[in-house]
Amino acid sequence: MYVVRSRYSTTYQNEDHTLTFGISKNVYILPVASEGAVITDVVPEIFYNAPHPIARLADGEHAGFTVRTRVYLWSPSGLNAKLRVSGSWGSAASAQITEVAGAAVAIVNMSASAEQVRLWWPNGKGSRSVQHSRVSYTLQCVPVWIGTPYIISY
After folding, report:
1. Tens-place pLDDT, residues 1-41
2. pLDDT tens for each residue of 66-104
3. Among 41, 70, 91, 102, which residue's beta carbon has the most beta carbons within 10 A?
4. Range of the domain at 50
5. Cα distance between residue 85 and residue 136, in whole Å
6. Are residues 13 and 45 in the same domain?
């Protein structure tokens, strides 16, 4: 079983606004197969591929971006999986994860060139283009031979 809990929740104590770590509000209990895994968090980080701009960027005329995606997984009995992250702009990357039981983190980097993405602007300043990322994993199985393999010759 894996308990999904709030990373940080806002609370008030003596009229002071504080952040607490732990179970807050709804709690979900997810059954996990002994050979399975759960993606617990996905953290996309976007970095501009040039020094900080001092003027408004234009679609198709900028240095592009690097999208670093940190994926947190949890497995009760260890994990041997292939993680794949793909972006709606046409870029994809994968990572191999081999971990012992418990928590694991994988970092996958993708690029997004100026030709691949349209910029998002606040209301009234331009279009609001949105790009999406998809994260999936495939458990890797090791083939096991049971019995004696037969060799057939002609």
Report:
1. 555 554 555 555 555 555 555 555 566 677 777 777 888 88
2. 999 998 888 888 778 888 899 888 899 998 888 778 888
3. 91
4. 34-139
5. 7
6. no
Task: Extract the tokens encoding 26.
Answer: 């709804």
- Structure tokens given for 47: 């970095």
Does the residue 148 lie in any domain? Answer: no
The CA–CA distances, whole Å, from 139 to 29, 80, 84, 87, 136 equal: 22, 6, 11, 21, 10
Q: Kindly state whether residue 153 falls inside one of the protein's structural domains.
A: no
Q: β-pairing, 133-139 with 92-99? A: unpaired
Claim: this prediction has a pTM higher than 0.70? no
Q: What ranges make up the beta strands (E) of the chain?
A: 2-4, 9-13, 16-20, 28-30, 38-48, 65-75, 79-87, 92-99, 102-112, 133-139
